[in-house]
Amino acid sequence: MPSVRSSDDVVLFSEERSEQVVTRSFDATPDARLREVLQSLVRHLHAFAKEVDLSQPELDAAIDFLTRTGQKCDDVRQEFVLLSDVLGMSMLVDTITNRASGSATESTVLGPFHMVDSPPRQLGEDIAQGRSGEQTLVTGQVLGDDGSPLPGATIDVWQADDQGFYDVQLPDRVPQGNLRGLFTCDEDGRFRFRTIMPAPYPIPQDGPVGELLAATRRHPNRPAHIHFIAGAVGYAPLTTHIFVAGSPYLDSDAVFGVKESLVVDFAVVRDGDMVAEHAMPVPFRHTHVELRLRSAR
Ligand code: BEZ
Ligand code: FE
């Protein structure tokens, strides 16, 4: 057997020195950020394994879990994003990214259901396209973080139906694009659309992430919400939701996406100017949303 010559700069692997040996193996990484991230990852992974005394069967189970997570992914299913969501990583990275948002609207997770393009629609159009549910009017305005209206801003919206399903989950019953819309705001940055009230729903549970939630007795539900991506030239795109005030699971969202500022009332409207102005069937629910974008400069 060839022997390893010991010298001052050769350090062989041992439990005590594992971080040192493995981080050193990345010392020559030319990309400084890649080096920083990998070396930090190694330090934390090794510290974690030592803290919990990780056993070989447990490592094998983790590798099997991650393998099956990858195998569950396809064009319309992203199990790794879901895993990141339920571990709070998606929200943590989103929060770090948007740390200094000032007076801009708070962001939240994108989620896995923005995988199809929203159909362009006219202001005022019904994104539910006549589907049954509690009739709802959403009005709003896109503003800069200094409060100035942003003419021609765009909003991309998508939501689940009154049973908690997205169009892509009901391909045989619902045309793709249902409960989705891409709108261009008017000269005052205003928008409006018709829809139905969204219901709370469980995130997909038929994969490894579902197993994880079941094994840990965590529920899979998200509170009722509508997704938005707002954009305007010169401003950072805003990915967020509005959550329905009073919805179940606001205090225990399976993906930790709720922020207090994003919870809004959907008032019941029975009469008044809005009925005539928007030609809505009464009664209907209404909410008004201000989306403030952060200047990209
Ligand atoms: C969603 O809101 O569409 C969503 C977000 C994270 C995980 C699953 C679904
Ligand atoms: Fe959603």
Give me some keywords for this one:
binds fe (iii) ion; 297 residues; elongated; binds benzoic acid; alpha+beta; 2 domains; Catechol_dOase_N; 7 helices; iron; 5-stranded mixed beta sheet; 21% strand; 4-stranded mixed beta sheet; Protocatechuate 3,4-Dioxygenase, subunit A
Give a count of the beta strands, DSSP E runs of length 2 or more. 11
In this entry the ligands are: benzoic acid, fe (iii) ion
Work out the strand percent. 15-25%
Structural category is: alpha+beta
Question: Span between N and C termini?
Answer: 63 Å
Give the proportion of residues in helices: 10-25%
Q: Give the averaged pLDDT, no decimals.
A: 94
Supply the number of structural domains: 2
Task: Please summarize the sheet with the most strands.
Answer: 5 strands, mixed
CATH class of the largest domain: Mainly Beta
* Widest β-sheet, arrangement of strands: 3-2-7-8-9
Question: Looking at CATH, which topology of the largest domain would you report?
Answer: Protocatechuate 3,4-Dioxygenase, subunit A
Discrete helix count: 7
Family: Belongs to the intradiol ring-cleavage dioxygenase family.
Keywords: Dioxygenase, Iron, Metal-binding, Oxidoreductase
Protein name: Hydroxyquinol 1,2-dioxygenase
InterPro entries: Catechol_dOase_N, Intradiol_dOase_C, Intradiol_dOase_core, Intradiol_RC_Dioxygenase
What does this 3D model show about the protein?
With 297 residues, the protein is α+β, with helices and mostly antiparallel strands. The chain folds into two domains: 18-54; 79-293, Protocatechuate 3,4-Dioxygenase, subunit A. The chain has seven helices and eleven strands. It has helices at 18-24, 32-51, 56-71, 79-86, 89-97, 208-215, 273-278; strands at residues 135-144, 154-159, 180-184, 190-196, 201-202, 221-222, 225-231, 238-244, 263-264, 267-269, 284-293. It has a five-stranded mixed β-sheet with strand order 3-2-7-8-9, with no helix packed on it. A hairpin with a 6-residue loop joins strand 7 (225-231) and strand 8. Helix 1 runs antiparallel to helix 2 (32-51). The longest helix has 20 residues, at 32-51. It is elongated and about 85 Å long. The termini are far apart. 26% of the residues are buried. The chain binds benzoic acid and fe (iii) ion. Residues 111, 113, 160, 225, 227 line the site of fe (iii) ion.
